[in-house]
Amino acid sequence: MKISTKGRYGLTIIIALGKEYGEGPMPLRKIAAEHDLSEAYLEQLVAPLRNAGLVKSVRGAYGGYMLARHPREISAGDVIRVLEGPIQPVEGIEDEAQPQRELWIRIRDAVKNVLDTTTIEDLANQQESTTENYMFYI
């Protein structure tokens, strides 16, 4: 299964809103600037998230977007399904021979489990990676 930029950037929006949960609405331009993304593209992605009840919008000078529910009540799977559709590693599983079908089903179920058990709160609370860059001299 390959997650497109729609799913990746949609998660970026939701995680950013999750980090600011309870602090009022956040403008998309701030998210776009912080992550070096197109604000216009984020506007396209936030509409289905709003329609699905994951985010809500606030109009006005201090407006923007905020999560419609607590970050612990929204899973990564919720976001991916809204933007990417059903989670399945391959299409036409029913046409596969039994051994392959079982493999695809196990992969699908494993991916669903990870996405459905990972909350936006989990993702928002993760610290940025601080891996050290090593230089090797020969």
Percent strand: 5-15%
Rounded to the nearest angstrom, the distance between the terminal CA atoms is 40 Å
Let me know the number of strands. Answer: 2
Which radius of gyration do the C-alpha atoms yield? 18 Å
**pLDDT < 50 runs, ≥5 residues:** none
Number of helices: 6
Q: How would a crystallographer describe the biggest sheet?
A: 2 strands, antiparallel
If strands are numbered along the chain, what order do they take across the biggest sheet? Answer: 1-2
Shape: elongated
Oligomer: single chain
Write the layout of secondary structure elements.
Blueprint: H1 5-19, H2 28-35, H3 39-51, E1 55-58, E2 64-67, H4 76-84, H5 98-117, H6 120-125
Antiparallel strand pairs: 1-2
Helix pairs in contact: 1-3, 1-4, 4-5
Protein name: Cysteine metabolism transcriptional regulator CymR
InterPro entries: TR_Rrf2-type_CS, Tscrpt_reg_Rrf2, WH-like_DNA-bd_sf, WH_DNA-bd_sf
Organism: Metaplanococcus flavidus
